[in-house]
Amino acid sequence: MRSTLTIMGIAMGIGAVVCVVAIGDAGSKQIQERMKNLGENLVWIEAGSRNVRGVHTGRRGTKTLVADDMYAIQQ
């Protein structure tokens, strides 16, 4: 009886992991498709700095974007 319940528990656990991974992969592919459909003329702008492979880019003091930033980018 115990071994049967153990086998059922393991099988259900493996099934749950497979389902979660499949859902995650499907969501990732959907997001990648949406990003690809945006085109190559997209510019991503973020306030503050980023850490790219251990190197900080940008100024760390900037927390938000303001209207003046928008006008400077438009020009």
Q: Structural class of the helices, strands and pairings?
A: mainly alpha
How confident overall, as mean pLDDT?
83
**Which word captures the global form?**
elongated
Note the main sheet. 2 strands, antiparallel
Number of helices: 2
Strands, total number:
2
Query: What percent of the residues sit in helical stretches (DSSP H or I)?
Result: 55-70%
Q: Order of strands side by side in the largest beta sheet?
A: 1-2
Uncertain residue segments: none
User: What proportion of the residues form beta strands (DSSP E)?
Assistant: 5-15%
Describe this structure in words.
- With 75 residues, the protein is mostly helical.
- It folds into two domains: 1-40; 43-75, no CATH class.
- The protein has two helices and two strands, in the order αββα.
- It has helices at residues 2-37, 67-74, and strands at residues 50-52, 55-57.
- It has a two-stranded antiparallel sheet.
- A hairpin with a 2-residue loop joins strand 1 and strand 2.
Short description:
By secondary structure, the protein is mostly helical. 59% of the residues lie in helices and 8% in strands. It is elongated, with a radius of gyration of 23 Å.
Please describe the structure with a list of short key phrases separated by commas or semicolons:
2 domains, two-stranded antiparallel ribbon, 75 residues, mainly alpha
Topology:
Elements (H helix, E strand, L loop, with lengths): L1 H36 L12 E3 L2 E3 L9 H8 L1
Antiparallel strand pairs: 1-2
